[in-house]
Specification:
Layout lengths: L2 H39 L5 H20 L4 H18 L3 H19 L3 H16 L10 H14 L4 H13 L3 H12 L8 H18 L1
Helix pairs in contact: 1-2, 1-3, 2-3, 3-4, 3-5, 4-5, 5-6, 5-7, 6-7, 7-8, 7-9, 8-9
């Protein structure tokens, strides 16, 4: 076998291996995304939802631990933990929120552009919702900076536009939030994220009604 043909065969085998290795990663990522959407938008608030999110946070942590060089699992671990903290509420949620912050910050160190800058979006939303000093680490200035970075990466995305609009409304600037809500409402559907898109669109329309 000539050297060039050997090179082609090796390259083909390498590409085949990468494709087979990527499939379980992509499947697990999609599964966590779907389970999060079901917990966030289908389950009623209360113990059932908290239990589902707690279980999912453990699974997301296992996924990120198994893929330490990838930002996407850390982003989703952070998203699940943030949602779990919001569902739990009270002072007991602060420790969960700190774990969410750590996961999202770790994702930014690996690849800030992963999932269209979703780490910036989620971290910005977290800083805007967590109480400030001395109870928590919330920081409005950091929140705005992070959310604007998310918008710079994904200006037409439903999530960065929604969360920045929410930030503006929380600071009595609902009129300025309307253009971002309009962009969120017109955002293209995301592949494999139908349930999440439907739930987020309901939130967008509800906030738009409040802003008007």
């Amino acid at each position: 076998m000539k050297a060039s043909r050997i090179t082609v065969v090796i390259a083909a085998a390498f590409l085949s291996f990468n494709a087979s290795a990527a499939a379980p990663f992509d499947e697990e990522l999609a599964s966590i995304q779907e389970l999060w959407a079901e917990a966030n938008y289908k389950l009623p608030t209360g113990d059932e939802r908290k239990r589902a999110l707690e279980t999912l946070s453990g699974r997301a942590h296992e996924f990120s631990t198994a893929n330490p060089t990838r930002a996407e699992p850390l982003i989703w671990e952070g998203i699940v933990l943030s949602t779990y903290a919001g569902a739990k509420g009270g002072l007991g949620a602060l420790g969960i929120a700190k774990k969410s912050r750590a996961a999202l910050e770790a994702a930014l160190k690996i690849n800030p552009n992963a999932l269209d800058g979703s780490a910036y979006t989620s971290l910005g939303a977290l800083y805007s919702k967590v109480p400030g000093f001395p109870l928590g680490f919330g920081d409005d200035d950091k929140a705005q900076t992070l959310l604007l970075k998310a918008l710079a990466i994904n200006p037409g995305g439903i999530d960065p536009n929604y969360f920045y609009a929410q930030y503006l409304c929380d600071h009595d600037q609902c009129a300025q939030a309307l253009p971002y809500l309009q962009r969120a409402a017109e955002a293209p559907p995301r592949v494999g994220r139908q349930l999440a898109d439907e739930g987020r669109h309901r939130e967008v329309l509800a906030l738009m009604a409040k802003a008007k």
